[in-house]
Design goal:
single chain, alpha+beta, Glutaredoxin, eight-stranded mixed β-sheet, two-stranded antiparallel sheet, 10 strands
Length: about 200
């Protein structure tokens, strides 16, 4: 009798586990996944897709915005990433995922104004309808994703924060995004593929 009861408990647990969602997958892309392309409007009115970059080796994708203090603090560092790596095949693609009805400061008009003020050297795209950021599992602004172009498609290689000090760029000890891109350019394995994104929650 005990054996039957024990077997029933084990089977019930097994069936319950089968019904459980795969939480990591539900949160978005994971390291090693092929990311899908998108077509989003840039601040210049033109639409941008990853496929537009025929000669790219990969991309530094950042979900960012105008209004988050963390995003603002990292703007200059994101500009520097593009200056350093765009010519090497890893351009920056910035995407604003926030709902402008919740954050008027993140409206398309304000995005255009901010990009002009800062002299963004990269596309600053609006995620209209908030369709793209959930696929990536982005939760913060800024939230960084480094993808590499391969024969299989654009493969996610790193996700998380830019570096280990959002308060002071001069005090940074570990540059996670730079380390990831440098490793890819050298054909080496990335030592740290995931970190915790630090920033403001995405406004829905």
């Amino acid at each position: 009798m005990k054996t039957i009861v024990l077997f029933s408990i084990i089977m019930l647990s097994f069936l319950t586990d089968l019904k459980k969602p795969q939480l990591n997958k539900d949160l978005g892309y994971q390291i090693g996944d092929v990311v899908s392309d998108f077509k989003l409007k840039n601040v210049d009115g033109k639409f941008v897709s990853l496929s537009d970059y025929k000669n790219a080796k990969g991309f530094i994708i950042t979900f960012t915005c105008n209004t988050c203090p963390f995003a603002v603090a990292y703007e200059d560092r994101i500009i520097e990433l593009d200056k350093k790596y765009a010519s090497k095949g890893f351009p920056v693609i910035a995407i604003n995922p926030n709902n402008p009805n919740v954050k008027p400061g993140d409206s398309y008009k304000e995005m255009q104004k901010r990009a002009n003020e800062k002299g963004f050297t990269f596309p600053y795209l609006v995620d209209e309808g908030q369709q793209v950021y959930p696929k990536y599992g982005a939760t913060k602004t800024p939230h960084m994703f480094v993808v590499q172009k391969t024969e299989q498609g654009n493969v996610l290689k790193y996700m998380g924060t830019i570096d280990d000090n959002y308060k002071d760029a001069k005090s940074v000890k570990t540059k996670y995004v730079e380390n990831a891109v440098d490793a890819l350019l050298k054909g080496e394995e990335i030592k740290q593929t995931e970190t915790k994104a630090i920033g403001c929650s995405i406004k829905v």
